[in-house]
Write a structure and sequence with these properties.
About 55% of the residues lie in helices and about 15% in strands. The protein contains 14 helices and eleven strands.
Length: about 450
């Protein structure tokens, strides 16, 4: 968002500076493009008459005295050159000398960007018929006003005014976008009730229309997700009742079963347990989606949880090799110990199911980049690279590369999905990778500052 704000701000500033530059140029050339220069030249006739009269009455001394008094005028100066081209006043401006000695006619010279904005010359004679040249100089207004100081303060004032105005205007234009970004982020993090700011909804422009469309979309998605969760929960609960009756009926059937029927009854019991486990997993996933209450969360020692997971796994799989490596002084994370243990158990059981016979499942925990990193790795066949992300979705299995003969039921593809939901619920990340030496590796990063 800072990028959009900066672009809008710079666009306003560039526009303001260009406008200022164009205004200055137009102001500089204004006299040349208008009749204002003619109005300024008009009084020079009086200056010429006065200079010639003074020269005829008092000669050069009186004319020089008149020129010295004339020099005190803030915006008009007068210079007189004799027949040899020498000025009666010392150090005349170079532009005045150049104009006086030029071979051009007695036309006025206008220079909108020079010190001498307008120059006018005319011949004057004394009583002896000696010709002098009078040059009247109209100074540029910026020279009269002390150009460096005037321009410096003017540019500084313009910059400050445009900077503040551009800042306010940019903030006004990007404020609803910032509110929208905040709302979208909350919505993406699972807060389905997140809606746009009321001020954005009251706007009558395109941003207001976009805010109202987003609220409409968010309400529709919230309703869909709520209905979907409710459906999964209701169906799962409704299936529990017939399953419970099926288990009771199965036990009653065993009472009257003959030995040849035991194998079929055992198969029915196994499938019933699998279906019951799947329903339990679905309920857990639905609960994770709807649970936003963290009031029961506390600091959790993941090292202790991993110890318990490894102990349980060794009890369930006494012939498997399980290695646990914990860094010293592991910090605690803020979260739900029961959910985290469920996630670690699901990943560990998945690793035990797919690791090659005689190989180990390795678990480790250490601190990395302000996060607690937990790695669970098996030594199995791995997973195709294009399927790694899909494994974190419900009911996804990659049996073509991971299946082994004689292992029986492979699961429903919910274990890794539940682990993914648990880690995301704790504002963490989980990534599946193929180890370079073989096997699948689950990398879990849990933030330490939550």
């Amino acid at each position: 968002m800072r990028g959009v704000f900066l672009k809008i701000y710079l666009a306003f500033m560039v526009t303001a500076l260009v406008t200022t530059g164009v205004t200055l140029v137009m102001a500089a050339y204004y006299r040349q493009w208008s009749n204002d220069s003619i109005n300024l030249i008009a009084p020079t006739g009086g200056y010429i008459s006065a200079a010639e009269l003074i020269l005829q009455q008092g000669g050069e001394p009186l004319l020089l005295e008149w020129l010295l008094k004339f020099e005190r005028h803030p915006s008009v100066s007068a210079y007189v050159f004799d027949a040899q081209g020498l000025s009666l006043l010392p150090n005349p401006p170079e532009a005045v000398v150049d104009y006086a000695l030029s071979s051009e006619s007695y036309n006025a010279r206008i220079s909108p960007l020079g010190r001498s904005e307008i120059l006018v010359k005319a011949p004057i004679q004394n009583t002896e018929g000696r010709v002098y040249l009078l040059v009247v100089e109209f100074l540029h207004p910026l020279v009269v006003f002390n150009l460096p100081t005037y321009a410096g303060w003017g540019l500084l004032a313009s910059f400050l005014i445009f900077a503040v105005w551009s800042l306010l205007l940019s903030g006004y234009l990007t404020r609803p976008v910032r509110y929208m970004q905040k709302t979208v982020r909350s919505f993406a993090n699972g807060d389905w009730t997140a809606r746009m700011d009321p001020r954005s909804l009251r706007r009558r422009d395109e941003l207001g229309e976009l805010s109202r469309e987003f609220d409409h979309m968010a309400a529709y998605i919230e309703r869909l997700i709520r209905d979907q969760k409710q459906l999964v929960s209701d169906v799962s609960h409704e299936l529990r009742s017939p399953l419970a009756r099926a288990v009771v009926a199965l036990e009653l059937a065993r009472l009257d079963a003959v030995p040849d029927q035991e194998e079929h009854l055992d198969r029915i019991e196994l499938e019933t347990e699998r279906l019951n486990d799947m329903i339990g997993d679905l309920l857990n996933m639905a609960k994770l989606e709807t649970q936003h209450d963290h009031s029961h969360w506390a600091l959790v020692d993941c090292g202790v949880i991993l110890d318990q997971v490894v102990e349980d796994a060794r009890f369930e799989h006494p012939d498997s090799l399980i290695h646990l490596t914990l860094a010293a002084d592991l910090p605690k994370v803020f979260g739900d110990a029961r959910l985290l243990m469920s996630a670690f158990e699901n990943i560990t059981r998945n690793a035990l199911l797919h690791t090659h016979s005689g190989t180990s499942v390795d678990l480790s925990a250490r601190v990395k980049d302000q996060s607690l990193r937990i790695v669970i790795r098996d030594h199995g066949p791995g997973v195709p690279e294009d399927k790694l992300t899909d494994l974190l979705r419900p009911f996804v299995r990659v049996e073509t590369s991971r299946a082994r003969l004689g292992e029986g039921h492979r699961g429903f593809g919910l274990g890794l999905a539940i682990a993914h939901r648990v880690v995301s619920h704790h504002r963490g990340q989980i990534e599946l990778k193929n180890h370079r030496e073989g096997g699948l590796m689950a990398v879990i990063d849990l933030p330490l500052d939550v």
